[in-house]
Each structure stands twice: as structure tokens, then as C-alpha cells.
Design goal:
two-stranded antiparallel sheet; HD_domain; hydrolase
């Protein structure tokens, strides 16, 4: 198989991400977003909010992470943080399933590209580097903004409290984008009353 055969096989497989529905709705609340839309929106968040990134953050690497981070949902699906099954979000079972999916999906690429993309995905998942912390923060803030814009969205569906929001999401946003969390926190407090 040529490199182009492998690359197009990967790109065709990645198209399936558009069929993975997330719990989060669009900002207008008209329908649930899909994971492809989520990844695109996060890349745009990174471009627009680059000034909120910490020192030394490479926004190009952040965008790459955000475009790749949810490809595993092709196999695993979306596991919402606030759902009744939210504990599964970080469970050993979900993480193992995501590792298998990453092996399969990135394994479609030519070896060098597969290694590079998988390393970016692993870095995002570990959330230890400045780039990954900023990327993870954006991944957590985008659904918050969609919920604020859509009249509560999944917060209403899953009966989320402000304390749950702060514990499950706010802490992660604050790690990589403290100024963003301070701004969002004010909006969320008003919504939760």
C-alpha cells in the first residue's frame, strides 16, 4: 500500500467522526452537534483564544491536538462528563477502549505520520504539557459555552449543579486557560443563579 493509499484510508475513516453524535447541542439548541463539528469548533477556539494561552504554548500544535483528539470516538462514541454514566468518562474501561481505537485509527497512516499523530493524541490525553493543558481547557470550555448559549442544554438534561460544573470542568479549564475560566465562571454563576 502506498503512503497516499494509507493517508486516504485514514481520511476516509476520519469522515466517520461526523456521524458520532455528542450530548452537547449546537449553541442555538436546534440539534446535537457531532464530533467532527466539535473538533472543528475547537480548532477555531484555539485560533481565536490564542492570547489566553500560557507562555510557550505553540498554537499550531494545539490545533493539531484538537483536530485529532476525538477520532477515537469513531469506535468508542461520546461519553458525556455530566451524564449518569459520566464516571465512565475517565474509567479504565473507557481509556482502554480509546487506546485500542487510537491504535487502529492512527495505524491506518504511514508509519512516521502514525507515530507523530499518536504522540500528539497521547500528549493531549496526558494533559501535562502547556500545549496539552491549553488544548484540554478549550475542549472543556466549548460545551460550557454551548450550554450557556442554548439555555442550559445538557446541564438541564443531566441536572448539573454549579458545584459539579466547577469540579468536573472548571478545574481543567483553569489549569490551561485561567483567564477564560474566570470569564466563563462569571457567566455560569449567573445562569445557575
Amino acid at each position: 500500500m502506498s503512503d497516499l493509499d494509507a493517508q486516504f484510508a485514514f481520511l476516509n475513516e476520519a469522515d466517520r467522526l461526523k456521524s458520532v453524535l455528542r450530548a452537547t447541542t449546537l449553541c442555538d439548541g436546534s440539534r446535537r452537534e457531532n464530533s467532527g463539528e466539535h473538533s472543528w469548533h475547537l480548532a477555531l477556539y484555539a485560533l481565536v483564544l490564542e492570547g489566553q494561552a500560557g507562555p510557550g504554548v505553540d498554537i499550531n500544535r494545539v490545533i493539531k491536538m484538537l483536530l485529532l483528539h476525538d477520532l477515537v470516538e469513531i469506535d468508542v462514541g461520546d461519553v458525556p462528563i455530566h451524564s449518569a454514566n459520566g464516571q465512565a468518562h475517565a474509567s479504565a474501561e473507557t481509556q482502554a477502549a480509546e487506546q485500542r481505537a487510537a491504535n487502529r485509527i492512527f495505524g491506518l497512516l504511514p508509519e512516521g505520520q502514525a507515530t507523530t499523530f499518536r504522540a500528539l493524541w497521547d500528549e493531549f490525553e496526558a494533559a501535562e504539557t502547556p500545549d496539552a493543558l491549553f488544548a484540554k481547557s478549550l475542549d472543556r470550555v466549548q460545551p460550557v459555552m454551548a450550554n450557556l448559549q442554548s439555555g442550559g442544554g445538557t446541564w438541564v438534561t443531566y441536572d448539573v449543579t454549579y458545584d459539579q460544573l466547577e469540579a468536573r470542568v472548571g478545574v481543567k479549564i483553569a489549569k490551561g486557560a485561567p483567564g477564560v475560566w474566570e470569564w466563563v465562571k462569571g457567566k455560569a454563576r449567573v445562569w445557575f443563579g
